Amino acid sequence: MLLSDKVAVITGAGPGLGRTLAVLMAREGADVAVAARSADVLAGIAAQVRAEGREALAVPTDIADPAQARRLASAVIDRFGRVDVLVNAAFPGTHRKNVLDMDDAYLEQWRSAVETAAYGTLLACRHLAPHMVAAGRGSIVNITSMSSRTGYAGRSDYAAGKAAVHLLSHCLADELGPSGVRVNCVAPGWIASGVLDDWMRARADAEGVPYEEVRARDVAAMALRRIATEEDVARAVLFLASDLAAATTGATIDVNGGQRFT
Known about the structure:
single chain; 49% helix; oxidoreductase; globular; Rossmann fold; 7 strands; 8 helices; Sc_DH/Rdtase_CS; seven-stranded parallel β-sheet; SDR_fam; 2 domains; NAD(P)-bd_dom_sf; alpha/beta
């Protein structure tokens, strides 16, 4: 198995990609620690990891809080004694609003969103990467986005947060490489989900056309003519986390069905 007897930590482990990734890593032999704000969601993910025959640790965490990020690292080391893989996927759900339409409350929400993505990723790396450095090995995979290099109206918080993580990953790759720790990114495009379907339906309603027409138009713009799934993204993360990518650092794998070439 690709992660046999390794310890993986996933921050931002929500009910979508985070859950899929945790289960996949467990099937590939890893014990998994999951961190997010929702204790109930984490408990469900941990149960699925244990159902795969691996150990699980659920640590409710606001990863942008320095004390909680430090507590997460301590909990992982106390339980497992080491960390081999760190996946940072935390980013809060956001609404779509143009910059000139933001009131004071939304401006604060913007700041919080970017802080969760960028500062939260920094804190997770700051407190967990030293254990990788001490071991002389490890892999950090940061989930960015197609939006980390292409901005869209109404999505400045998402784009800014993901772009910060993208370049932070380059800096960390340069800093940690001499110690045997690799740092890479996976940049999804659209991921098949109910949220994406709802957005397509909203666009169809605004245009006065059927949902199927909007979806077909979007898919036709992708080279592979299909929308990526959570499993597609998780497998790219798994590759970078594993020894198959032993000579890869500072890189980004785009998983967008050919919606954008980079």
